[in-house]
Amino acid sequence: MRSVLITGANSGFGYLMALKFARNGYKVYATTRDLKREGVKEINEIALKERLEIEWLVLDVTNEKQIKEATKDIESLDVLINNAGFGMIGPIEGYSAEEFLLQVDANLFGVHRMVRRFLPMMRKQKSGKIINIASVAGRITFPYYGLYSASKFGVEAYTEVLRSEVRSFGIDAVLVEPGTFKTGFSKRVVEGEEDIIKEYEHVGKQIGMMKDFVHKFGVLRFEANPQKVADKVYQLAGQKVSKLHNFVGFDSKMLALLRKVLPDNLWDSIVQFIVE
Ligand SMILES: NC(=O)c1ccc[n+]([C@@H]2O[C@H](COP(=O)([O-])OP(=O)(O)OC[C@H]3O[C@@H](n4cnc5c(N)ncnc54)[C@H](OP(=O)(O)O)[C@@H]3O)[C@@H](O)[C@H]2O)c1
Questions:
Q1: What is the average pLDDT value for the chain, to the nearest integer?
Q2: pLDDT for 135
Q3: CA 62–ligand 1 middle distance (angstroms)
């Protein structure tokens, strides 16, 4: 039986991935920070009804000790999906370095901790797939999504290098870059975020416009179902070697393409036009 570990599986993409993999015969190690989360309860009910192999591990990806303890009984792993993450929204100036660190700690260092936990095992196995959930915000930037983008640009660079370093061991590392999808992501407000936005009142309207623009872009898409991301990840997991970049969603594909073909100054003018 093939096995997969998915971080942040109690909500959003992770939740859908856990069910997708389990329904297709995988043994799923699903991580959550808290077994009391609604998504854990829901998945357990479904798993019981459908006799799915889903085991919960309690861990925060910012806590190395917890990662080691929670995963100590795993002896082999075919697929590692680094999905856990969140977004800090607001002007770059509003966040202290310590607050910024929280964003990078979860979204980028969290990936690194999980990779370091499972890479030696995969090297011994001479096989494995590492799928890192980045974002289109790891390819392009939007004003007021600076800290989030910085963390996801980091995941992009990290994965590109990792991929080149592990290929000779039979391991493949790839990126999935979703556009905007309705999950728990946009509902989460980071502690202090509202105060920061209030404090920087002069940009409040612009933040609203930017959020609105991102949302409208999402609505414009032909398919807004987050299941698309889970399906794509599942498809990649079954391939020995996949391409590095995997944009999911019309908005993601289009924005990544535009950023690639448009000269910097034109891109810059478009972004300024949107926020002004
Ligand atoms: N939705 C989008 O439009 C979108 C677009 C591009 C990329 N993404 C990326 O997709 C991934 C999944 O997000 P989602 O949209 O499914 O959002 P979500 O519904 O909010 O799910 C995020 C999951 O990550 C977990 N998580 C957050 N910080 C964590 C930490 N420090 N340690 C362990 N788990 C942690 C959350 O756990 P708790 O429930 O305990 O908070 C939750 O299970 C993220 O990396 C996000 O950046 C999302």
A1: 91
A2: 97
A3: 13
